[in-house]
């Protein structure tokens, strides 16, 4: 059984999804990649991830609608959301609904370092070497 916290990468660009997924894996997360907003909403109805990297410009259902869904669902109240977008004006409007709003381009190391800060800390019993 995988004891890593789950991260959803909701990004329709295949290359960026792969980069974001790799950065989050390096930060200690188990990854689920999603390429459209409608699928994201379906998965969020069944899953409570630890963190979400969310692109705003998504096919079928836009990222801002997905973010509103996340923030209105009591089950998802503790989920950390990192919004990624190239649209600075759109990002400004959503800055208080996400833990972080990052403007593209975002580097692998930048996202990995930021996601590591949000990773749940394991207890000493889970990591006896600590």
Produce the secondary structure layout.
Blueprint: E1 6-10, H1 14-26, E2 30-34, H2 37-44, E3 51-55, H3 63-72, E4 80-85, H4 88-94, E5 100-103, H5 108-118
Parallel strand pairs: 1-2, 1-3, 3-4, 4-5
Helix pairs in contact: 1-5, 2-3
Q: For the CA atoms, what is the radius of gyration?
A: 14 Å
Number of helical stretches of at least 4 residues = 5
Mean pLDDT reading: 88
How much helicity do the residues have?
A: 25-40%
In terms of structural class, how would the helical and strand content be classed?
alpha/beta
Stretches with pLDDT under 50, minimum 5 residues? 123-130
Task: State the CATH class.
Answer: Alpha Beta
Question: What is the CATH topology descriptor?
Answer: Rossmann fold
Major sheet characteristics: 5 strands, parallel
**How many domains would you count in the coordinates?**
1
- CATH homology group: Response regulator
What is the overall silhouette? globular
> Strand share of the residues?
15-25%
- What is the β-strand count? 5
Which H/E pattern describes the elements? EHEHEHEHEH
Strand order of the largest sheet: 2-1-3-4-5
How far apart are the termini? 21 Å
Report the CATH architecture. 3-Layer(aba) Sandwich
Record keyword descriptors for this entry.
alpha/beta, Rossmann fold, 5-stranded parallel β-sheet, disordered C terminus
């Amino acid at each position: 059984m995988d004891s890593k916290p789950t991260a959803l990468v909701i990004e329709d660009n295949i290359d960026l999804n792969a980069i974001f997924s790799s950065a989050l894996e390096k930060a200690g997360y188990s990854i689920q990649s999603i390429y459209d907003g409608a699928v994201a909403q379906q998965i969020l109805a069944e899953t409570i991830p630890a963190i979400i990297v969310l692109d705003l410009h998504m096919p079928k259902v836009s990222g801002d609608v997905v973010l509103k869904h996340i923030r209105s669902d009591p089950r998802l109240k503790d989920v950390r959301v990192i919004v990624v977008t190239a649209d600075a004006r759109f990002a400004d409007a959503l800055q208080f609904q996400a833990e972080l709003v990052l403007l593209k381009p975002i580097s692998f190391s930048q996202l990995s370092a930021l996601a590591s800060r949000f990773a749940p800390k394991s207890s000493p019993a889970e990591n006896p070497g600590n």
